[in-house]
Amino acid sequence: MKVDSYVFWVIVGSAVVTLIPRVLPFLFMRRVRMPVFVQKWLSYIPVCLFSALIVQGVLEQQGRGMLSVVWSDLMALAVSLAVAFKTRSLLVTVLTGVVGAALFRWLF
């Protein structure tokens, strides 16, 4: 019984430690008015992060500094982008990307 209690409190403590850096900035920043140029600069961050994740997923490192394209992932990305521009629906785009990635990985 003592071990179960210990594991429970470790999980609770881990959740709190993980939650604090995610929630505190929002609580603090909602009361702060940032200058317009800072708001504009911050608006590019989601695009940069999204682009970095996509590039990391489509390219893989081969040897020392050599990059190669993961063609199945690139094809799934192309299909997902086409669906995103056509439908403007996040749900449909994500579902298309997941199904496309699975299908192209299975085929290639």
Detailed description of the structure:
The chain has 108 residues and is mostly helical. It has one domain. It has 5 helices and 2 strands, in the order αααββαα. Strands 1-2 form a two-stranded antiparallel sheet. A hairpin with a 3-residue loop joins strand 1 (59-62) and strand 2 (66-69). Helix 4 packs antiparallel against helix 5.
Observed structural traits:
5 helices; mainly alpha; two-stranded antiparallel ribbon; 108 residues; 2 strands
Q: What is this structure's SSE topology?
A:
Elements: H1 2-29, H2 36-43, H3 45-58, E1 59-62, E2 66-69, H4 71-87, H5 90-107
Helix pairs in contact: 4-5
Task: Quickly describe the structure.
The protein has 108 residues and is mainly alpha-helical. Helix content is 79%, strand content 7%. The chain has one domain (2-107).
How many H/I helical runs?
5
Overall spatial form: extended
Distance between the termini: 50 Å
Portion of residues within helices: over 70%
Beta-strand proportion: 5-15%
Give me the secondary-structure category: mainly alpha
User: Strand order of the main beta sheet, please?
Assistant: 1-2
Taken in chain order, the helices and strands follow as: HHHEEHH
Mind summarizing the main beta sheet? Answer: 2 strands, antiparallel
What integer value in Å does the Rg equal?
21 Å
